[in-house]
Each structure stands twice: as structure tokens, then as C-alpha cells.
Amino acid sequence: MPIKIPRTLPAHDTLREENVFIITDDRAEHQDIRPLKVGIVNLMPTTVDTEIQLLRLLGNSPLQVDISFLRMGSHESRNAPPGHLERFYVSSEDIIRQNVRFDGLIITGAPVETLPFEDVDYWSELTAVLDYSSKYVWSTLHICWGAQAGLYHRYGVPKLELSRKLFGVFPHGVNERHTTLFRGFDDEFLAPQSRHTESDRKAIAAIPELTIESETDEVGVFIVTAREGRELYVTGHLEYDPLTLDKEYRRDIGKGLSINVPKNYYPGDNPSQAPVVRWRAHAHLFFNNWLNYVYQETPFNLVEL
Fold first, then answer.
1. What is the DSSP string of 10-78?
2. Residue 206: what are its φ and ψ, rounded to 5°?
3. Residue 220 in contact with residue 129, Cβ under 8 Å?
4. 172 to 14, 109, 146, 183, 213: CA distances (angstroms)
5. Among residues of the chain, what percentage have pLDDT more than 90?
6. Domain-embedded: residue 255
7. Measured between alpha carbons, how far is 234 from 142 in angstroms, rounded to an integer?
8. Confidence band, pLDDT 50/70/90 cuts, at residue 149
9. Residue from 12, 51, 125, 144 carrying the catalytic annotation
């Protein structure tokens, strides 16, 4: 079954060309089923690209997913197309005030990881979303800085600066194979990473409510869960498309910044070569497993959350 998005959303045509199963508002109104309601708090500067990346994965499922985009009203985005947020997004404050319930919520990364959490201009609004999600959302998926923010706000896990940026495509292992999130996973799988900081592994391990599901020595902690899957913290970017790391690398080179070539991404780590995608299958599997978990566990009547 499809994801439901407006026909006028820029991602619509791209996903349609890729044969991602989508449905428009007018068609969905004639179907007598309850779709999964999933909210996306999109904090990435690449607004439309991030929409496409996440919708591509959410649309590769037998479930119909009703998407709502949330924005931080306390933050002015300089990168979204003019009028885009006003047209396609709702403010998080309105969602909280109306006690809107979601089966699932995704909180993306953001380019603010070197700042103390409290110095981020929308921190108080984001913490309100985190508190709201604990009560009105069945399962919340936090990605990259969103994962660091969630672990810090809910459990006091500090953020540590890395000696060099973790940048590239890295192998990851699975600690807890019984977890439904890893159904069908290989013993080792690849995923992109792009970050200057990490959540303190010792602090995570000391908190009984948190389970480290995936980690390696090179990457550190990759996936943490809590509340039997109702909170997911993913430190990397399974959602990245083939050229995302390439764009980040060339952007920083263009700014004159010191940046290493993303590891294990270009053949022979040679940026003159086209990157090879080796994480797509597990990205789809992970998001399908998450949606299936949400579908199986969420009460049919969301008021019962």
C-alpha cells in the first residue's frame, strides 16, 4: 500500500518516476481503511532532498502511510524553497496544542551538532516535541543529531566531540538479533555516517532503560532502543541516497574546509569515481521492519495511546 502525500509536493513527481507507491489526498478519501499516521520533523537544511529520501523508504511497504511534515515555528529556514514550509508543513506547536496522535514519528538530523544543545535556537520547541511524543506517539525514530538530542533530553546522555569527522560508509554489527527491527538482516551491514560528535557509550550502557542494538569499534554506537521499540535512536543515515555524501564532500571542499574523502564510498576512495551504493537494501529492510512493528503494536484507535 502507498504513502499519502499531496499531489503538489515536490517529492511527488520524483517518487512517481521511481515507481514508489504513493497515493494522493483525493484518491485516499475513497478508501475505507485506517492508514498509519507518521509525522516527520524535518530539521535538515536539504529540505526537499530529505523528504524524498524518507518518503522513498516509507513508500516501499505494503502499508498505507499518511504523512504529516512538522516544522519548528521558532526557527527560520534559509534553505527550503520559498513558501514550501508554509504550504506543506504544520507547526509543532499546533500539533502539541491539539494533542494530535501519530503511530510513528521521525525526527531527523540537523547541522547543529557542534553547538551545545541548549544553544540551538529551537531547542525548547524540540524538547516539547520530544515530551509530547512520549505520550502521543507509539514509536519515535530519531536520526543522527535527532538521536543525540533525544538521548540527552530524556536520559542525560552527553555528546562527545570526535577527533575527526566520521564520514563514509561503514560496516555495522547486530548485538540483539531477536529484535524485530533486524528481522532479515545479515550479520554485518553497511550504513552511511556523517558526524563530528557521538553520544557517550559509557553513559548509554549505564542506563537500564536503554539497549545498544548495534555498534562497532570504528563507528561506536549505531542503534539504541528503549521502551521495547517505542524509542529508536539511529546515529547514522540509512536514508541517504547515492549522492548525499558526495554532495557533502564537494560542498565542504568548495568552502575550503579540511575534509577527508568519505571512507568506503568511492571505488578505491577516489572521488573522481562514481560512488557505489551498498546500503540501500538494508535501509529498506530497516524502515519496513519499523513500519511493520508500528502496524502490529499501535492501537487501532489512537486515542488509546
1. THHHHHHHTT--EE-HHHHTT--S--EEEEEE---SSHHHHHHHHHHHHTSSSS-EEEEEEE-TTS--S
2. -85, -5
3. no
4. 30, 19, 20, 15, 10
5. 74
6. no
7. 6
8. very high
9. 144
How far is 43 from 37, CA to CA, in rounded Å? 19
Active site residue 282: no
Active site residue 17: no
Q: Is residue 144 among the annotated active site residues? A: yes
> Is 198 a domain residue?
yes
Residue carrying C-alpha cell 557509550: 201
**Cell 547486530 found at:** 174
Range of the domain at 54: 3-162+173-241+281-304
Q: Per-residue confidence at 6, pLDDT binned at 50, 70, 90?
A: confident
- Do the domain assignments include residue 291? yes
Report the alpha-carbon distance of residue 299 to residue 96 in Å, rounded: 20
- In the chain, the number of structural domains is 1
Q: Is residue 110 part of a domain?
A: yes
| Segment 78-87, tens digit of pLDDT | 778 889 999 9
Measured between alpha carbons, how far is 300 from 305 in angstroms, rounded to an integer?
10
| Residue tagged active-site, from 84, 172, 237, 282 | 237
CATH of the domain at 218: 3.40.50.880
